[in-house]
Amino acid sequence: MGRLRTRGALSLAAVGLLLGGTGVAPALAVEPMPAPSVPVETPVAPPPNGKVPVEPVDVRKEEYWLDDYGVRDAWKSATGKGVKIAVIDTGVDGSHQDLRGAVGEGTDVSSVGRGNGQEGLGAEPEHGTLVASLAAGRGHGSENPDGPGGTRGIIGVAPEAEILPVSLWVGSEHPGARDIDEQIPDAVRWAVDHGANVINMSLGSNATGWPPAWDSAFAYAEEKGVLVVAAAGNRGSGLNQVGAPATIPGVLSVGGVDRSRTASWDSSSQGISIAVAGPSEEMVGAIPGGGYARWSGTSATVPLVAGTAALIKQKHPDLTAAGIAQRIVDTAHDAGAQGKDPLYGYGILDVRAAVEDDVRISDTNPLGSVRQWIAQNRPPSQTPTPSSSPTPPAPDTRQVTGEATPPVAQAPLNETGALPVVVLVSFGVIVAGLTVAAVLHIRRLSR
């Protein structure tokens, strides 16, 4: 994610929508500044003789969160089978050896990518593949005796979940790309309509507000019980506070911690909307073309939480977004200031506990409700309709239940014929008065 000179509270098109990793690529803006992202130029291990080996290193050993955050233990109860995670990002390479069979139906909402959502777009075309691999990578090679998937390569938190790739164009200019304010709501609606149970948004902005055009799409996801997980952003890219879409009520905003479980300075931010924190430093992931890369940032944390949500959905299929979110926040380990705080939210992610522990599900969503927020904060003129064109007002078809009272007729003023007489008498009185006054005045002058 990156900081832009031009800021705006209502339009992310004005301030730019940015990706949640840290590294070196520029970001889209009216006046862009360097926005670091993913250092894909440097693989996990340098390839010998200038050729990329089949297995650069054993990247599975680099995934410290599988043991440290209870992922392997959670696989005893669920692996994400039957659950769909929509990855709204820069496109996902479904041909990567660790994602084969994991990527299902997709789409492009930018108007410049492939219709299946599997083409890398924008300034960081590898970003979506990195994200997808941590959510639902399946690894490759021989069958893993200790868990699902193959023994080599990247394995995601929910390795049997299905990825629905939705490609966006963000991070650089493109004359044919649609406005981001149109891409985002269309992406969310498409994901909901095509069966996504969880939506992964490893992107954000430096604006806490969001365009009214986004309202109905996020309200639609809430109505259908689809959990949206979004990145809190990174100070290392210039963002010191959480930006949209992670500020939208009902969205599960994710912060980051380092290997010691301390709030990360460069690879996280802060804000009252942060719900949970997870690992965001010393991360690895898959990149297009069969490679791997080190990276950092809350972009990498979001798919771990989205994958956790997929495990919960498989284990507890009757839960909606609110119930899934409650299991995640209620089982998190409190950190920082006691209770919810702007660095760790409700605490640090515990994948096993979120899936297996007994949690009392209340009727109240701990993340709030975007539908209630819209009703309280948007003027009626700003409330968008789901369609792209304005809907004409409906005709007033209310029935009249009261009996109408007819006006009472009034008699005309001249009904008796006395009007002319009254006028003449009045005129005569006025003339007589003026005559008397004139005579008296003349007599005084004569004296």
Radius of gyration: 33 Å
* Structural class computed from helices and strand pairing: alpha/beta
Number of strands: 13
CATH superfamily: Peptidase S8/S53 domain
Here the CATH topology equals: Rossmann fold
How far apart the termini lie comes to: 106 Å
β-strand percent reads: 5-15%
Shape: elongated
Specify the CATH class: Alpha Beta
Oligomer: single chain
The largest β sheet comes out as: 7 strands, parallel
Query: Which spans of ≥5 residues are poorly predicted at pLDDT below 50?
Result: 1-16, 22-43, 46-55, 386-416
GO biological process, one term: proteolysis
InterPro entries: Peptidase_S8/S53_dom, Peptidase_S8/S53_dom_sf, Peptidase_S8_Asp-AS, Peptidase_S8_His-AS, Peptidase_S8_subtilisin-like, Peptidase_S8_subtilisin-rel
Pfam families: Peptidase_S8
Organism: Kocuria marina subsp. indica
Write a structural description.
With 447 residues, the protein is an alpha/beta fold. It has a single domain (12-382), classed as Rossmann fold (3-Layer(aba) Sandwich), CATH 3.40.50.200. The chain is 26% helix and 14% strand. It is built from 11 helices and 13 strands. It has helices spanning 12-15, 65-68, 71-74, 127-136, 180-193, 215-223, 298-315, 321-330, 351-356, 370-377, 419-446, and strands at 18-19, 84-89, 107-108, 138-143, 150-155, 162-167, 198-201, 203-204, 227-231, 252-257, 274-279, 283-287, 291-295. The protein has a 7-stranded parallel beta sheet, sandwiched between helices. A two-stranded antiparallel ribbon has the order 1-8. It has a two-stranded antiparallel sheet with strand order 4-5. α4 packs parallel to α7 (298-315) and α5 runs parallel beside α6. The longest helix is centred in the last third of the chain and has 28 residues, at 419-446. The protein starts with 11 loop residues before the first helix and ends with a helix. Mean pLDDT is 81; it is low at 1-16, 22-43, 46-55 and 386-416. Belongs to the peptidase S8 family. Residues 101-124, 370-411 are annotated as: Disordered.
